[in-house]
Amino acid sequence: MGHLSGERLYEIFARQKREDRLEHIGTVSAPNPELARVYAWKTYDEATWFEMVVAPRDAFRSVNRDEVPFTLHPAEGV
Amino acid sequence: MSPARTDSFKSADELPPDVREALAATLLCLADNKRILGMRYGDWIMGAPTLEAGIACSAMAQDEWGHGRILYATLKDFGFDAGKLEHEREADEYRNSELLDAPVQTWPELLALNLLFDAALSVQVEALTDSRYEPILFKTRKLLEEERFHFEHGRGWAMRLGDTGAGRKALEAAFRKAVGPCLRWFGRPDSGFGRQLVDAGVVNADADELRRRWRERITPVFAEAGLEIPESGEAVALEWEDWDADRRRAAGGALDEVTLARIRGDKNRSMLMD
Question: Looking at this predicted complex, what is its ipTM?
Answer without folding.
Answer: 0.84
